[in-house]
Every structure is written in C-alpha cells, then in structure tokens.
Amino acid sequence: MSLPKGGRQRSADMVGRSRKRRGATHHGGQSELKVSCSGSQKKRKPSPCGFLDKMRAKLSGGHFRMINEKLYTCTGKEALNYFKEDPTLFDMYHTGYQSQMSQWPEQPVSKIIKWLKDHSTSLVVADFGCGDARLAKSVKNKVFSFDLVSNDPSVIACDMSNTCLESSVVDVAVFSLSLMGINYPSYLTEAHRILKPAGWLLIAEVKSRLDPKTGGADPDRFIKAVCELGFKSEVKDYSNKMFVLLYFKKKEKSSSMKREIQWPELKACLYKRR
Ligand code: SAH
Hints:
The protein is an alpha/beta fold. The protein contains nine helices and seven strands. Strands 3-2-1-4-5-7-6 form a seven-stranded mixed β-sheet. Strand 4, helix 8 and strand 5 (about 195-205) form a beta-alpha-beta unit. Helix 1 (about 5-35) packs antiparallel against helix 3 (about 50-75). The protein is globular and about 70 Å long. Bound molecules: S-adenosyl-L-homocysteine. InterPro entries: RRP8, RRP8_N, SAM-dependent_MTases_sf. It comes from Trapa natans (Water chestnut). Its main location: nucleus.
C-alpha cells in the first residue's frame, strides 16, 4: 500500500503554515515587546526563552492534533507505513498525547493496571497499542506490548491486526484508548485469536466515541458486535467522565455459525486546541 498521501500532504501544509505562523508570531513577539517597553525594561521584557518555548509548545500541539487525526482516519497498515517513513512523528504524537493525558483526572491505563494487580500475576497479557508501555512497566505479569513503533526493547513494533503470537496464548488482551484505525474490528479479531478460551478482553475508550449524545456510536451496538465475535460482556462502566470501560470474556467455545458482524463506526477523537 502506498504511503497515505493525505497525511503527507497535510504534514507538508502544516509545516508551511507553521513557518508562516512562526513569522506572524515573530511580529506578535515584537508588538508584545513594544507594549512592554512602555514600562520598566526589567519587569516587562518577555524572556525570549519563554516566548520560544510557548511557540514550540503551540507547534508541537498542532503536530500532535494532525498525527492524531491521521491515526483515527486511516488503516493500521497505513499508520504503520506513516511512522516507518518518519519515526520522529511517533515521538511527537506521544509528547502531545501525554500532555493531553496529564489534564485527565484519571487515566484509563491506571484502571487497567489496578485490575491486573487485583488478579493473578500469572496471567499473560497482550497490550494492544501500548504507547510508552506503562502497563508492562507497572505489573509483574508477562506482558507482550505492541505498538506501531518500538522505542523500547520490550515493545514489539507491528500493526496490531497482525501480531506475531500463536493462537490461544494470552489470558488478557488490553486496548487502552487504542481502537484508532478505521479497521478497528480487525484488532479485536486478532485479540480474539490470541486469547485463550475464557480469556479477558479489557477495552477503555474515549467516552464521546461511545456516546450517542455527543455523536458517538451506540455502546450497545458496539458491545453486541464484540459479543458476536465470540465474547460475553462482563463489565460496562460508564462512571468516568472521560472514558468508558468495557470488559469481556472470550467464550469457551466459538460458534460455528459465522454471520457478518455489523460493527458501528467509531468516530475520530479529536483533541481541542489548548
Ligand atoms: N495504551 C496507551 C497508549 C494509548 S495511545 C495508554 O493508554 O496510554 C494509542 C496507541 O495505539 C498509540 O501509541 C498508537 O500508536 C497505537 N496504535 C494505533 N493503531 C495501532 C495499530 N494498528 N497497531 C499498533 N498500535 C497502534
């Protein structure tokens, strides 16, 4: 598959705009300086470092939002190629992601870490879309961490619709805010394949994606589709303002009747400019 052109195009546009913006903000900086010159130099002159830091933060916020939108609107395979072309985009994405997450009162990955700590450490875990692999670093379990780019020897770089694991080898499959690609059902199908019978599927998703009031999908339709894949719904937790937790167990026996599953579309989660 060719490189996602939209992303490249937008990327180039973005840099162009950023350069222009940098020019504009330079003027802005000067005018700020002018205003500040009317009083005591020492007090009012903005620190050039502070100003540049602010600009850098704005630019990196813009890049984060662009990459984030890309990941939600392409397939996993395209996303893998996107980062292969320029792995620095992955770091850019995660800097922005961490900055967004730091605003959330509680992070879903913490909930999942707590769940794992309340269960046996002998459970083998697969963390789909592990990011900085915080989950693996926080528990004693054997964890296979998958993401599009590996910045850590413990992370396996792949498109998670196609992991390197044998069938029926893990006890827990985790998706913490990682059902991003337009082909997200293929990630859940892969999780079903590598899970042992009665294994756990733990999903944490951004609330607005599964809330019809905010234009999101009907969570019951999503749950029904996951059950048709071969799971039983065990936990539905809508109590958090930012994310929902949906836990499932893989059925002991898979149905021989293979019907086409009606997966709801999950809209992109776009972060606001701060
Ligand atoms: N689970 C972590 C990170 C969430 S960010 C946490 O809760 O903090 C979502 C992650 O999913 C990103 O790191 C992104 O690269 C990864 N991801 C998205 N699509 C993927 C795919 N097809 N294959 C592997 N990783 C993917």
